[in-house]
Design a protein that fits this description.
Number of strands: 11
Distance between the termini: 50 Å
Order of helices and strands: EHEEEEEEEEEHE
Largest sheet: 11 strands, mixed
Helix content: 10-25%
CATH architecture of one domain: 3 Solenoid
Shape: globular
Number of helices: 2
CATH class of one domain: Mainly Beta
């Protein structure tokens, strides 16, 4: 955030429509730095915003934070609920806590960083086009269906503070995946994998790209300068660009 004093909105007594109207009104006035205090379940914060504004959220925002967002930087000092980054086009969401289900649903661009854990179906239907390559980095663990039906982008699972040998993801990892990359720190067992993905080597180009995401994640949360090595990761990619082709008419 800039050195200019941020505008502060106290959300403690605001219904979600009131809060979002106040945020949009502040941005329309030219405000670039906003602080939302005492947020507790108000949904749709940042939804559809196209701006370079920075929003700091103190509390727990409700569903669909940053849905259809195009440009802002949102930082959350707390946990987030379901649907963060739904169909997000660009910008950054950084969560200094845990996230709920369907994080990054149909995400088209931008970055989502979660310092803690995330729920089910993270990255479902993510896609990319040209320079628009969405990225999600999870610091902890995720539940089932990580990268389900993923069509593009990059998912990274770090498993920070997880005891050695504990699985970082649940079942059906990459089920229906037909584009993009998934990186999991540590081994991935066969029983975890969907039939549509396989393990592939991490070449120099892939490692360069992954290192950029790791460094950005480290800087965002003030973590140690030491990054994981290439040998610590398992890279997963789809085995087919059209995994369910046989069930379609054409």
């Amino acid at each position: 955030m800039s050195t200019i004093a941020a505008s502060v909105i106290d959300a403690s007594s605001l219904q979600y429509r009131e809060l979002n109207l106040m945020v949009r009104s502040a941005i329309a006035r030219g405000e670039k730095d906003l602080v939302l205090r005492n947020v507790c379940g108000q949904r749709y914060i940042g939804a559809g915003l196209s701006t370079d504004a920075s929003i700091l959220i103190e509390g727990i925002p409700g569903n669909d934070l940053a849905a259809f967002m195009n440009g802002p930087v949102i930082r959350v000092q707390g946990n987030v609920q379901d649907g963060v980054g739904n169909t997000m086009s660009s910008g950054t969401v950084a969560v200094d806590g845990d996230a709920g289900d369907v994080l990054g649903y149909a995400m088209r661009g931008g970055r989502i960083f979660v310092r803690g854990e995330a729920g089910y179906r993270v990255g479902i239907h993510m896609k990319e086009y040209g320079p628009q390559v969405p990225t999600i980095v999870i610091g902890g663990t995720v539940r089932d269906y990580f990268g389900e039906y993923m069509a593009g982008g990059t998912l990274v699972l770090l498993g920070l503070d997880v005891p050695p040998g504990e699985p970082l993801a649940g079942d059906f990892l990459g089920t229906g995946m037909h584009g993009g990359d998934i990186y999991v720190r540590g081994a991935v067992e066969d029983w975890q994998l969907g039939r549509e993905v396989g393990r592939v080597p991490i070449d120099d180009a892939a490692w360069t790209n992954l290192s950029l995401h790791l460094d950005a994640f480290r800087r965002e949360f003030g973590l140690s300068d030491e990054l994981p090595t290439k040998e610590e990761f398992t890279r997963l990619r789809p085995v087919s660009r059209r995994p369910y082709g046989r069930i379609y008419v054409y």
